[in-house]
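Q: For a teaching session next week I want to show students how multiple molecules come together into a single three-dimensional assembly. I've collected the sequence lines for a complex. Could you give me the predicted structure tokens for the whole thing so I can convert them for display?
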Amino acid sequence: MELTRIHPLVYLIYYFIMIVFAFIIRDPYFLLSFLILILVLISLQGISSELKNIMKLFLPLSILIIILNPLLNKQGVHKIYLFKNFFITYEAFAFGVLMSLALLIVILIFSSYNRSVTYQDMLYIFSKRLPVISMVIVMALRFVPLINSRTIEIQKLNKLKSNGVEINLENSNDDNNLEEFDSNISNIESSSNSKFLAKLNSSKKFHKIREESKVIGKIMAVTVSWSLEESMFTAKSMKARGYNAYNRTSYLSYDYSLADIFFLLLIIFTVSIVTAGFMQGYGIINIYPSFDFSFSDLPLNIYYFAFIIFLLPLIYLEIKERLLWH
Amino acid sequence: MIIQDFIQILATNISGGAANSSLSILLLIFGLLLIIGIIYFVFKMYEQSKPPVESIVLIAVLTAIATVGRLLLVSIPSVNLASFIIIMVGVVIGKEEGFLVGALTALVTSFFGGLGEWTIFQMLAWGLMGASAGYLTSKFDSIPFRLIFGFVWGFLYGWITDISALFFAGSTIEISQYFAIVIAGLTYDLTHGVSNAILLAILYNWFKKIFERVKDKYLPNIISSNT
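A: Of course. Below is the structure for the complete assembly, covering every listed component.
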């Protein structure tokens, strides 16, 4: 989509500032509106199905934070006694809740980021400054599925072998290595406390684990040596075709458009207002020593509205795209 | 209750009067930028050494192997074949390659599993794991040292990556919060360390042979030998 194409570097800056804001902001009103707008953005981007997985990760973590923080942190004025001498503070509890809210926001921002900026865009940004490293990353990304399929192939072969199918291999270095592997284990056994190990050896479970680890080790070793050999052929081939003779060009190309400039100006304008608000204490609430917050004082000031405007452009772009494609 | 008391004593002792020892979030963000700078510096150093094609492909394939090792056992999060591969690269091929493979493994894994600010700490932790293995190459022939090295790095990796969780602490950060996170991740770090140590003890010689063969055959003069 040409109309809503934004330069990846602009995206990177925008998301980075959003994350820094999520780290700093502790005002419940700011945080709640932040959360709502991010949820709107995510549902517009069509990754609300991912939300279930995110919640699976997030809920236990947030419960841990909310429970652990009051137990460890005894600052604050308002004490709540649970037992005779055991108390938690209202401030520490509120802090835990706000902290886990911020955590949720950051996780959501990252999932939205992964949607907006693909890894190819990221590599485009890298490739100007670090051409060789981005080449390594591209190659590694290509090798991962290849090596994965090789591992599966070796696993299948190993299953056949262990089921009694005979396969004639030209060189059987593997068996030598396996013997060495066995002697390695027995070396360790003899060098360390033998009573404990004798007990372990007698148990069936340990025997099973040992056999399994032997198989995993073997599969790993075969995969590694195979992939390393093959990769060296790749390298020779690349050399023969003249890699490094010229500078490489990128598969993607981006130019700064008028939309990018507007976007950047909006970011600069709103961020400077919000930062000025931070200086005066808007958005950052002092929780310790005393957390005096009531939901009745609405944050109807320019800093809050600047913050909301800062969060809107991506939602605007998504809605515009919807309308255009309708 | 005993564990709770222990945690509380630990937290109050180390933070030393809590309120005074708070540092600001800006310091943490500054630290994050510093880490990015360090990683960028190492990358740039590698770029400027004009690496030959063999070295580039070798690093790419080792990164891919470590990533597959990480993704294969993703259901058992702390059993970590990636750490083992990274340590082996550091030992056999060199400290710079160890750092690069470690840092890039974290980055490439994040393309599959999702990017976050923890990625940067993972990059640092795995990078340092590979580099430190490269510095201590000569000691790796003894089994007790291998066991200790793998075990210790299991914990160090956990502690470095735990720093990323501190960003949610807001404008003031207490050291007690960090300890809460570390204690929460204790079992994870323990299994990571133990599995590292076992893999290093059992598979070290076998993998050393494989890596050295490639190194001698294809990169005789390119990578300065450490051994």
